[in-house]
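Reopening this one. Same input as before:
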Amino acid sequence: MTAEQNKLLVRRLVEEAVNRGDLDVLDEVAKGELAAAARRWVGPFRGSFPDFQMEIVDLVADGEKVAAHFRCSGTHLGDWMGHPPTGRRFRDVDEIYIFRVSGGKLAGAFGVKDNMDRMRQLGLSTGAWPASGAGRRTPIRVRDPQLSGQLAPPRRTADLACGLMAACCQAWINPGGTGRQDRRKANHGSRGHE
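Same output, byte for byte:
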Protein backbone atom coordinates (compact mmCIF):
# COMPACT_ATOMS: atom_id res chain seq x y z
CA MET A 1 0.00 0.00 0.00
CA THR A 2 1.10 3.56 -0.56
CA ALA A 3 1.79 6.04 2.23
CA GLU A 4 -1.45 7.85 1.39
CA GLN A 5 -3.46 4.62 1.60
CA ASN A 6 -1.91 3.85 4.99
CA LYS A 7 -2.77 7.34 6.26
CA LEU A 8 -6.33 6.85 5.00
CA LEU A 9 -6.70 3.82 7.32
CA VAL A 10 -5.87 6.00 10.33
CA ARG A 11 -8.08 8.83 9.06
CA ARG A 12 -11.03 6.43 8.73
CA LEU A 13 -10.35 4.94 12.18
CA VAL A 14 -10.49 8.41 13.72
CA GLU A 15 -13.19 10.10 11.66
CA GLU A 16 -15.60 7.19 11.27
CA ALA A 17 -15.06 4.85 14.24
CA VAL A 18 -13.97 7.22 16.99
CA ASN A 19 -15.62 10.52 16.07
CA ARG A 20 -18.87 9.19 14.57
CA GLY A 21 -19.06 6.02 16.66
CA ASP A 22 -19.41 3.75 13.57
CA LEU A 23 -17.83 0.65 15.06
CA ASP A 24 -18.55 -1.44 11.93
CA VAL A 25 -15.73 0.39 10.13
CA LEU A 26 -13.21 -1.15 12.54
CA ASP A 27 -13.32 -4.48 10.67
CA GLU A 28 -12.55 -2.62 7.43
CA VAL A 29 -9.54 -0.69 8.70
CA ALA A 30 -8.04 -2.91 11.41
CA LYS A 31 -7.08 -6.55 11.76
CA GLY A 32 -9.22 -8.82 13.96
CA GLU A 33 -7.55 -8.51 17.36
CA LEU A 34 -6.90 -4.77 17.03
CA ALA A 35 -10.43 -4.17 15.71
CA ALA A 36 -11.93 -6.10 18.66
CA ALA A 37 -9.80 -4.27 21.20
CA ALA A 38 -10.64 -0.87 19.67
CA ARG A 39 -14.32 -1.78 19.78
CA ARG A 40 -14.02 -2.54 23.51
CA TRP A 41 -12.46 0.90 24.07
CA VAL A 42 -14.43 3.20 21.72
CA GLY A 43 -17.96 2.24 22.82
CA PRO A 44 -17.48 2.67 26.58
CA PHE A 45 -15.31 5.79 26.20
CA ARG A 46 -17.96 7.44 24.01
CA GLY A 47 -20.50 6.46 26.68
CA SER A 48 -18.51 8.52 29.19
CA PHE A 49 -17.78 11.34 26.71
CA PRO A 50 -20.61 11.28 24.11
CA ASP A 51 -19.26 14.30 22.23
CA PHE A 52 -15.66 13.00 22.21
CA GLN A 53 -13.72 14.15 19.15
CA MET A 54 -10.20 13.47 17.93
CA GLU A 55 -8.80 16.16 15.68
CA ILE A 56 -6.11 14.95 13.32
CA VAL A 57 -3.29 17.47 13.64
CA ASP A 58 -0.74 15.57 11.57
CA LEU A 59 -0.28 12.21 9.83
CA VAL A 60 3.13 11.10 8.55
CA ALA A 61 3.61 7.76 6.80
CA ASP A 62 6.81 5.88 6.11
CA GLY A 63 6.60 2.37 4.74
CA GLU A 64 4.17 0.39 6.87
CA LYS A 65 4.12 2.89 9.75
CA VAL A 66 1.92 5.92 10.26
CA ALA A 67 2.71 8.49 12.95
CA ALA A 68 -0.27 10.52 14.10
CA HIS A 69 -0.72 13.57 16.31
CA PHE A 70 -4.24 14.08 17.63
CA ARG A 71 -5.91 16.69 19.84
CA CYS A 72 -8.86 15.35 21.76
CA SER A 73 -11.84 17.01 23.41
CA GLY A 74 -14.96 15.78 25.17
CA THR A 75 -17.50 16.44 27.91
CA HIS A 76 -17.65 14.08 30.91
CA LEU A 77 -21.33 13.05 30.91
CA GLY A 78 -21.10 9.39 31.97
CA ASP A 79 -19.20 7.32 34.53
CA TRP A 80 -15.50 7.09 33.70
CA MET A 81 -13.03 4.94 35.62
CA GLY A 82 -15.25 4.98 38.69
CA HIS A 83 -15.92 8.72 38.55
CA PRO A 84 -19.46 10.02 38.22
CA PRO A 85 -20.01 12.60 35.48
CA THR A 86 -18.54 16.01 36.25
CA GLY A 87 -20.17 17.82 33.33
CA ARG A 88 -16.74 19.37 32.70
CA ARG A 89 -15.08 19.42 29.32
CA PHE A 90 -11.47 18.64 28.43
CA ARG A 91 -10.02 20.36 25.37
CA ASP A 92 -7.01 19.87 23.14
CA VAL A 93 -5.46 16.94 25.00
CA ASP A 94 -2.51 15.75 22.92
CA GLU A 95 -2.13 12.14 21.84
CA ILE A 96 0.64 10.69 19.67
CA TYR A 97 0.40 7.25 18.07
CA ILE A 98 2.52 5.18 15.76
CA PHE A 99 0.36 2.72 13.85
CA ARG A 100 1.67 -0.40 12.10
CA VAL A 101 0.02 -1.48 8.84
CA SER A 102 0.10 -5.06 7.61
CA GLY A 103 -1.91 -6.69 4.84
CA GLY A 104 -3.78 -3.49 4.07
CA LYS A 105 -5.09 -2.97 7.62
CA LEU A 106 -3.96 -1.46 10.90
CA ALA A 107 -2.28 -4.27 12.79
CA GLY A 108 -0.97 -2.55 15.93
CA ALA A 109 -0.09 0.77 17.49
CA PHE A 110 1.82 2.41 20.27
CA GLY A 111 0.43 5.56 21.84
CA VAL A 112 1.22 8.28 24.33
CA LYS A 113 -1.59 10.37 25.84
CA ASP A 114 -1.52 13.37 28.13
CA ASN A 115 -4.02 11.87 30.57
CA MET A 116 -2.79 14.09 33.39
CA ASP A 117 -3.96 17.14 31.43
CA ARG A 118 -7.29 15.41 30.71
CA MET A 119 -7.77 14.60 34.40
CA ARG A 120 -6.75 18.12 35.47
CA GLN A 121 -9.24 19.72 33.09
CA LEU A 122 -11.99 17.44 34.40
CA GLY A 123 -11.11 18.28 38.00
CA LEU A 124 -9.90 14.73 38.64
CA SER A 125 -6.42 15.08 40.07
CA THR A 126 -4.44 11.94 40.87
CA GLY A 127 -5.33 12.59 44.50
CA ALA A 128 -9.05 12.59 43.68
CA TRP A 129 -9.47 8.96 42.62
CA PRO A 130 -12.36 7.20 44.34
CA ALA A 131 -11.29 5.33 47.44
CA SER A 132 -12.96 2.43 49.15
CA GLY A 133 -13.85 2.79 52.80
CA ALA A 134 -15.10 5.77 54.73
CA GLY A 135 -13.37 8.62 52.95
CA ARG A 136 -9.91 7.06 53.07
CA ARG A 137 -7.57 5.59 50.51
CA THR A 138 -6.99 1.88 50.74
CA PRO A 139 -3.51 0.61 49.89
CA ILE A 140 -3.69 -2.01 47.17
CA ARG A 141 -1.19 -4.81 46.74
CA VAL A 142 -0.48 -5.75 43.15
CA ARG A 143 1.65 -8.50 41.71
CA ASP A 144 4.77 -7.13 40.09
CA PRO A 145 6.29 -9.43 37.43
CA GLN A 146 9.76 -8.05 38.15
CA LEU A 147 9.51 -9.41 41.69
CA SER A 148 9.05 -13.00 40.44
CA GLY A 149 5.52 -13.34 41.77
CA GLN A 150 6.14 -11.65 45.12
CA LEU A 151 3.77 -8.99 46.29
CA ALA A 152 4.84 -5.46 45.52
CA PRO A 153 4.64 -2.76 48.20
CA PRO A 154 1.18 -1.23 48.75
CA ARG A 155 0.22 1.46 46.26
CA ARG A 156 -2.33 4.23 46.56
CA THR A 157 -5.58 3.73 44.69
CA ALA A 158 -4.61 6.60 42.38
CA ASP A 159 -1.34 4.92 41.43
CA LEU A 160 -3.13 1.69 40.61
CA ALA A 161 -5.83 3.47 38.59
CA CYS A 162 -3.22 5.29 36.50
CA GLY A 163 -1.36 2.03 35.97
CA LEU A 164 -4.54 0.23 34.94
CA MET A 165 -5.39 3.02 32.51
CA ALA A 166 -1.97 2.72 30.91
CA ALA A 167 -2.23 -1.07 30.78
CA CYS A 168 -5.69 -0.95 29.19
CA CYS A 169 -4.53 1.59 26.65
CA GLN A 170 -1.49 -0.54 25.77
CA ALA A 171 -3.66 -3.66 25.49
CA TRP A 172 -6.02 -2.22 22.93
CA ILE A 173 -3.44 -0.41 20.86
CA ASN A 174 -0.84 -3.18 20.73
CA PRO A 175 -2.65 -6.51 21.01
CA GLY A 176 -0.35 -9.47 21.12
CA GLY A 177 2.61 -7.11 21.00
CA THR A 178 5.80 -7.40 22.95
CA GLY A 179 5.70 -5.77 26.36
CA ARG A 180 8.15 -3.07 27.40
CA GLN A 181 10.14 -5.47 29.56
CA ASP A 182 10.46 -7.96 26.67
CA ARG A 183 11.55 -5.21 24.25
CA ARG A 184 14.22 -4.08 26.69
CA LYS A 185 15.53 -7.62 27.03
CA ALA A 186 15.61 -7.94 23.26
CA ASN A 187 17.52 -4.66 23.01
CA HIS A 188 19.99 -5.55 25.79
CA GLY A 189 20.42 -9.26 25.29
CA SER A 190 19.67 -11.52 28.25
CA ARG A 191 20.77 -8.90 30.79
CA GLY A 192 17.23 -7.45 30.98
CA HIS A 193 18.36 -3.95 31.93
CA GLU A 194 15.68 -1.50 32.85
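So the earlier flakiness isn't reproducible anymore. For the record, The helical segments are 3-19, 26-29, 32-48, 115-122, 157-173, 180-187.
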